[in-house]
Amino acid sequence: MPGARQRPARREPPHARLGRRAGALTAFVAAALAVAAVVAVSLHAHLPFGLSANSAKPARTAGPTGPTGRRKPPAPTRTVTVTTLGSLSAPASRIAAVPYGTGGALFLGGYDATEAPTDAIESFQSATVTAAGTLPVPDASAGAAVLGSNIYLFGGTSSTIYELNGQSFTVAGSLTSATADAAVATVGDSAYVIGGYSGSSELDTIVAYTPGVGTRTAATLPVTLRYPAAVSLGGQIYIIGGSTAGVPSATVYRYDPTTNAVAPFTTLPFARERESAAVLDGQIYAIGGANAAGERSRAIYAINPASGRVLLAGVLPQALADTVAVTGDGEIIVAGGTNEALAPVATIYAVTPIAP
User: How confident is the model over 284-293, as pLDDT tens digits?
Assistant: First the structure.
């Protein structure tokens, strides 16, 4: 109204201004948390075991072989790369293998796509797989080693030790019990069959076999171990993961054949079973595996045999367990296994150090 005196604007009480600012701050914090949640989900989707955001941080529990929950994985260093070398003649898992020929491998038995043991023997040379004979009986989950000029196959569906000399198999001896799902490593002229499963119970034994001498129980593990991996390096044997009473382990043991002493050496970032392992350039590599939920892993961990330090060295193109690994010519040959769908695969990979 013309000439009317305007009323001064009413000042907002201090407590109202504070409330409004608090509300704005709350909205900002909520938005920031939402963004963080999106980032977290993205990161969890790339964890080594391929976990979802809802299962990325389960509670840690104490198992018979040490912690079974997940720890924060070490920062990736990517010291190895993985390439496809070729394929087996058919998908297979839990194959036995030894280095063979010029930087190649010999694959023996394994489970086929119907989960039946096979009698196939295949030679892998220069990216080519060729048939190389058959086993005396179908076999899977056995172990193999080279001693002298001969190849030996240990257990699997029985306790039998077979010797392969050229194209001929003979029975060389017998393990102390039927032994499947064990690890095998060699030191000197002896092979050591570590842990495993008898068909009715898990095993806690380390059984030594020496050609011309026979078998003996060399040592006892602190726990029973099924599905471990093992390698030898510097006269010592490193026993990696495995499971006790169905609970995967994160423990790496070191066994000294000269004293028959077994002691914990280091710990993996994740408990696992059904992994494979091999030595390359003085480092131990643990490849793939499965956790307590049966989730397969893409992770390749490097274990320093001097310090016990464990680093994430690389990742497989797909999550796998039940593979076999042998050291070839400047690379680790990784073959077969089971994928996330628990189906066997035929792929053969090369794990190769990245040039500095």
Answer: 999 999 999 9
- What is the structure's pLDDT at 41? 33
In a domain, 334, yes or no: yes
Q: Is 240 a member of any domain? A: yes
Which residues, 6 or more positions from 223, have their beta carbon under 8 angstroms from its beta carbon? 64, 65, 204, 244, 249
Domain with 208 in it: 74-353
3 state SS of 195: coil
pLDDT at 166: 79
Give the up-direction half-sphere exposure of residue 137: CA atoms within 13 A in the CB hemisphere. Answer: 14
Domain count, the chain: 1
For 94-131, b where at least 16 C-beta lie within 10 A, e where not — what string? bbbbbbbeeebbbbbbbbbeeeebbebbbbbbeeebee
Tell me how many helices (H) and strands (E) the chain has: 1, 27
Looking up residue 151, the CATH number of its domain turns out to be 2.120.10.80
Mean pLDDT over the full length of the chain: 85
pLDDT of residue 76: 52
Asked, for residue 41, whether it belongs to a domain, the answer is no
Q: Are 159 and 196 in contact (CB under 8 A)?
A: no
Encoded amino acid at 152, one letter: Y
Residue 203 is assigned to a structural domain of this protein? yes
**Are 107 and 84 a contacting pair, CB within 8 Å?**
no
